[in-house]
Write a structure and sequence with these properties.
This protein folds into two domains: about 200 residues, NAD(P)-binding Rossmann-like Domain (Rossmann fold); about 90 residues, Alpha-Beta Complex (UDP-galactose 4-epimerase, domain 1), CATH 3.90.25. The termini are far apart. With about 325 residues, the protein is an alpha/beta fold. The strands form three sheets. A seven-stranded parallel beta sheet has the order 3-2-1-4-5-6-10, sandwiched between helices. It is globular, with a radius of gyration of 19 Å.
């Protein structure tokens, strides 16, 4: 079995590479990554000898062709994913997230891959005032990032229906864990607190996100690839809904830092108030979350404490 993992040098992708090496040692793993600011060789420093890393772009057909040849399964983690960056440069998100997915789908169709797993996000649904979104709810994205991911999802589903390509889509809640670029909320708060710098919190800090430990998400994605039905969408969440201020307080308490470091800043445009996913479909399939939030957050904080070699150069 030969697996292609695009974006495998990014945050979630690199964790999925490690998960796959441990869970499926019989598989040969190909990583295709553009190695941008967030996709880094350092994220795979401990597994270089176990995977084939191809420096290439999902938007370039020749790069994709070189990587996908002979592969049975494709996991598409490649994406621009930072909401703030999408607000200032939406074009880059449309290019990578939509056009790049198209290039991959075309290659997957030509090579008759057995499974194509499109990695998506809960943000495609938009804000949830009450209840939780199911896989049947209509996408209603607020940011260019979320819109580009929704577009990629629809394109992938069309390839399933039109060409019979065995596409499965996973939409996960907010991931956190080691190797996450420090522009994202939890690593930003952790590293700023370690440096005694202000922790910038948007608006009133009451926005709610549902958090899942990255290794938990990787296990769920792998589970879907083996047990899911092509043409279907699967929500993945651990039901850890937290206000941003609650996350900040827990990080500061763990590090024994003062709340005076909290700095409320102007809210970003179209900031979704709450995300919440209904995961009954995954539960019925047989998957359950196994990573307790408090333990996973503690492990994440400790990792950043012990690995400043990884994040300090990025912040400088």
């Amino acid at each position: 079995m030969k697996i292609l993992i695009t974006g495998g040098a990014g945050f979630i992708g690199s964790h999925f590479v490690r998960y796959s090496l441990e869970k499926h040692p019989e598989c040969r793993i190909i990583v295709l990554d553009k190695l941008t600011y967030a996709g880094r060789r350092e994220n795979l420093h401990d597994v270089f000898g176990s995977v084939q890393l191809i420096h290439g772009d999902v938007c370039v057909p020749d790069d994709v062709e070189r990587a996908i040849d002979g592969c049975n399964i494709v996991f598409n983690f490649a994406a621009e994913s930072h909401v703030d960056r999408s607000i200032s440069d939406a074009g880059a998100f449309v290019n990578t997230n939509v056009w790049g997915t198209y290039v991959l789908l075309e290659a997957a169709k030509r090579h008759k891959v057995e499974r194509f797993i499109q990695i998506s996000t809960d943000e495609v649904y938009g804000s949830c005032s009450n209840g939780s979104f199911t896989e049947n709810d209509t996408a209603n994205p607020s940011s260019p990032y979320a819109a580009s991911k929704a577009g990629a999802d629809l394109l992938a589903l069309s390839y399933s229906r039109t060409y019979g390509l065995p596409v499965l889509i996973t939409r996960s809640s907010n991931n956190f864990g080691p190797y996450q670029y420090p522009e994202k909320v939890i690593p930003l708060f952790i590293t700023n607190a370690l440096e005694d710098k202000p922790l910038p919190v948007y608006g009133d800090g009451r926005n709610i996100r549902d958090w899942i430990y990255v290794q938990d998400n990787c296990a769920a994605i792998d589970f879907v690839s083996q047990n899911g039905t092509p043409g279907e969408i699967y929500n993945i969440a651990a039901k850890n809904e937290k206000e941003n201020l609650e996350i900040v307080d827990q990080i500061l308490q763990f590090l024994k830092k003062p709340r005076a470091l909290i700095q409320l800043v102007q809210d970003r445009p179209a900031h979704d108030r709450r995300y919440s996913l209904d995961v009954r479909k995954m539960t019925a399939l047989g998957w359950v979350s196994t990573a307790p939030f408090q333990k996973a957050l503690a492990n994440t904080i400790k990792w950043y404490q012990e690995n400043d070699w990884w994040w300090k150069p990025l912040k400088q």
